[in-house]
Amino acid sequence: MIKASNITGPISRKAGGLFETVRHLCQSLQRLDMEIQVFGTADEFSAQDAASWDPVKVSYFHPFLHKQFGYSKEFYQELEVFHPDIIHTHGIWRYASVVTTKLHRKLGVPYMISPHGMLAPWAVRNSRWKKQIAHLLYEGEHLRNARCLRALCESEAAAIRAYGLKNPIAIIPNGIDLPDLSAPSANPANPVARLRAAGRKVLLYLGRINPQKGLPNLLRAWAALQKPEEWVLAVAGWDQGGHEDELKRLATSLGIPWTDARTSAVDGSSSHGNSLVFVGPQFDEDKEECYRGCDAFVLPSFGEGLPTVILEAWAYGKPALMTPECNLPEGFSNGVALRIETAQEGIQQGLKELFAQSDAERVAMGARGRDLVTQRFTWPTVATEMKRVYEWMLGGGGAPPESLRPS
Question: Among 65, 71, 262, 276, which is most buried by a count of CB atoms within 10 Å?
Answer without folding.
Answer: 276
